[in-house]
Design a protein that fits this description.
By secondary structure, this protein is mainly alpha-helical. It is globular. The two termini are about 30 Å apart. It has helices at about 1-25, 40-65, 70-75, 80-105, 110-125, 130-165, 170-200, 205-225, 235-250, 250-280, 285-310, 315-335, 340-365, 370-395, 400-425. It is about 80% helix and about 0% strand. The longest helix has about 35 residues, at about 130-165.
């Protein structure tokens, strides 16, 4: 498994680089009305100040991914207990979607970034405890803190970019697309670093969680010292919930798109939890396996940019392809008899995610009105959370990969049916076609 995962990671990264070089040759964006951002010193300083907070927080978040399940197994908790810990974090993150925007808008985005980066650090520190309820509290706090932190980061940047500095709104896509591009490579590096820390330090699988703390502290301190405060408009809870609900019930496209998101991402949440107990007993190096997963996701994103830049496929086609690949990956998992075969199926899961997220992001921006976007997502996160609970508590991996594969394959099949209906509805809609020069901004 060490050789297979290391080789897979290297080949996937090389393939990703080749696709990126190919897609860049196909891009011919028109000149913007203002000087190009890379030659604008004020914009470059401003964007750098955002990245100095965002990327350390991102690295801290990714460091914790590879050894989440293994840490709790190290503390000798049973599968059902570990599922409860994981579900506590997922539920807290889902709940944070309802409170993140009003909370950060009222308290202030800068204060929220600082406070929740330190709360996230504290949740990592509590991982040293072997007490179940202390760890459950840390998971809930960590899920809430991470969701609010990243929501506050994005909201702060958008307000400063447009409101305070008056940069062109088109330049927002440049910042976020660049952040999305480097996101995968930060994750690959974090996976490798987590493996080194877990194997090379006496602390074992708790080491990556402790290693995340300095990154979170640095992120919060930089924001406190260098950022200006900004706030958002106040909105009533009833309006922020009622308007999105009416939107998804009145527009069939919104409803079907949200249903695809709910089903696809519920499978991804289950996959994040269960890949470790399926591979780790066979000696899989968890950090390297995680890095390979992230490289596969990066390859999917690079392929998305290449296909859209060349006008070979549109986001609606690629969303359908991503859901199809997810279904086929879990179908293959049902017949996997060797750990390397399961590993290969999981690589296809991550590859499908690399196609899915930019395609979903583009279609959501085009189909769902901006004022209702967050609320619509929150409404679909409720059944998503319920599905994750049902799968994790109803299909423990006591009989190998078949239990996990059957549950996830069924959800992926439902997602494929819904995605097919959505594709039939929107495939002739010219407004949902992606311009060649916008391919890079759909991440």
């Amino acid at each position: 498994m060490l050789l297979a995962s290391s080789l897979a990671c290297a080949l996937l990264l090389a393939s990703c680089l080749a696709l990126e070089l190919a897609s860049r040759r196909l891009r011919h964006p028109p000149l913007p009305p203002a000087p190009l951002p890379p030659s604008n010193p004020a914009f470059r300083r401003f964007r750098r100040s955002y990245y100095c907070v965002y990327f350390p927080a991102l690295a801290a978040d990714w460091l914790q991914g590879p050894f989440l399940y293994q840490l709790y197994r190290h503390y000798r908790f049973a599968h059902a207990q570990i599922a409860g810990l994981y579900l506590g974090g997922v539920t807290a993150a889902v709940a944070a979607g309802w409170v993140a925007a009003p909370l950060t808008d009222t308290v202030g985005r800068k204060k929220s970034c600082v406070v929740f980066s330190f709360l996230y650090s504290f949740s990592c520190l509590v991982k040293l405890s072997r007490q179940y309820f202390a760890l459950l509290g840390a998971r809930v706090l960590g899920g809430l803190a991470a969701a609010v932190l990243f929501a506050a980061l994005e909201a702060w940047y958008v307000e400063e970019h447009v409101g305070r500095h008056d940069f062109p709104a088109d330049w927002l896509a440049l910042t976020f697309s660049q952040a999305a591009f480097w996101n995968h490579f930060v994750a690959v590096a974090a996976g490798a670093a987590a493996e080194v820390g877990a194997q090379g330090l006496a602390l074992g699988p708790v080491a990556p969680f402790l290693a995340a703390i300095p990154f979170l502290v640095a992120s919060g301190c930089y924001a406190w010292k260098n950022w200006e405060e900004n706030y958002g408009p106040k909105a009533t809870w009833g309006k922020s919930c009622g308007d999105p609900l009416r939107c998804l019930l009145s527009d069939r496209r919104v409803f079907l798109l949200g249903a695809v998101q709910m089903l696809f991402e519920s499978v991804v949440f289950v996959f994040i939890f269960l890949w470790t107990p399926l591979l780790q007993p066979h000696g899989a190096p968890l950090g390297i396996v995680f890095a390979a997963f992230m490289a596969a996701s990066a390859l999917g994103s690079s392929l998305y940019r290449l296909l859209v830049s060349a006008s070979l496929l549109q986001p609606s086609h690629l969303l359908l392809l991503a859901v199809l690949l997810l279904f086929l990956a879990f179908l293959a998992l049902l017949f996997a008899t060797q750990p390397v075969q399961a590993f290969g199926a999981f690589l296809f899961v991550e590859f499908s995610c690399g196609l899915y997220f930019p395609a979903m992001g583009f279609l959501r921006r085009k189909i769902v009105p901006q004022k209702d976007r967050a609320g619509v997502t929150n409404w679909f996160h409720l059944p998503l959370n319920l599905l994750v609970w049902l799968v994790l508590l109803g299909w423990p991996p006591t009989h190998g990969a078949s239990d996990m594969g059957s549950a996830c394959a069924l959800l992926a099949l439902l997602a494929l049916l819904v995605a097919t209906g959505l594709f039939a509805l929107i495939r002739r809609d010219a407004e949902l076609r992606c311009p060649t020069d916008a391919a890079v901004s759909d991440l």
